[in-house]
Specification:
The protein is about 60% helix and about 0% strand. The protein is an all-alpha fold.
């Protein structure tokens, strides 16, 4: 039987929030590493949090660092592609340097997601 056929929570009750209230509740859920629904059930019903509802907390500073690294790598790859399209040959170190930037960004993203990042 598929998971959706086993659902016990079949009732939906809409609730309205101000933008500030919603930001607060979503932020609290994110800091706890759980989904919005699990956080609300925890607060309202003192319900346990199911394992599948847990999410790794996001490290915003690390994600910003990874975004900057990806931007730099993308810019360098674009310059390499433009040079190749105009019939040129990129510098010997340009392609390995761009690949190293992508590898570094991947490591930071993995760290931000709480999954390490020491992949070869």
């Amino acid at each position: 039987m598929p998971g959706s056929d086993k659902r016990q929570r079949t009732r939906l009750k809409p609730i309205r929030f101000t933008p500030e209230e919603l930001a607060r509740v979503e932020g609290d859920a994110e800091r706890m590493g759980v989904t919005f629904g699990s956080y609300v059930r925890l607060r309202l019903l003192d319900a346990p949090i199911p394992r599948q509802s847990r999410r790794p907390p996001v490290e915003r500073q690390l994600l910003g660092q990874a975004l900057a690294q990806l931007g730099k790598a993308g810019s360098n790859l674009n310059q390499i592609a433009r040079h190749l399209n105009s019939g040129g040959v990129p510098e010997a170190a340009a392609v390995p340097a761009a690949l190293a930037e992508l590898h570094d960004a991947k490591a930071v993203l993995m760290q931000a997601l709480g999954r390490g990042g020491d992949d070869p």
